[in-house]
Amino acid sequence: MELMHRNLIEGSEVQALADALKINSTLTTLDLQNNSIGDSGVQTLSIAESGAQALAEALKTNATLTTLYLQNNLIGSNGSQALFQALKMNSSLTTLDLWGNSIGDNGAQALSEILKMNSTLTTLFLQNKLVGDNGVQALSEGLQINSTLTTLDLWCNSVTDKGAMVLCEVSHVDTN
After folding, report:
1. pLDDT at residue 10 above 60?
2. pTM for the full model?
3. Do the domain assignments include residue 175?
4. How many domains does the chain fold into?
């Protein structure tokens, strides 16, 4: 389902979408990129800094959604942490795209903890927002344990040579 590129989803539409995700048994891809859903729709679907509770709750029980695109939806550190917590219980999501959301180093720390236990996520896009060397250091700790993530895209973040070296070291760790 594609609801992308400035559809200005809000209010009752967002609530209906969150409710549908909880009982969905066929949808495998949800594309909400570039909606800037903002605070009015955030309380329901939780796509922005105000929280990610409804979406996170839906992800905990949803067993069919494999791909979730959330590009440019004003998700910050707190919202991303709630979303990442849902990944503890989700057993179907393989691709998560958070391009252009400000998860920051705190969000990367929360994600690192999830990567240590999540066994389904294979592709993660964190481009273009505020992950620096501290965030990369945190992610590397999760990546050392995780054996399923094969693609991590950190294009256009605040990662220096120091952070890049940390990632290079992790890429040589044998998880078997």
Report:
1. no
2. 0.80
3. no
4. 1
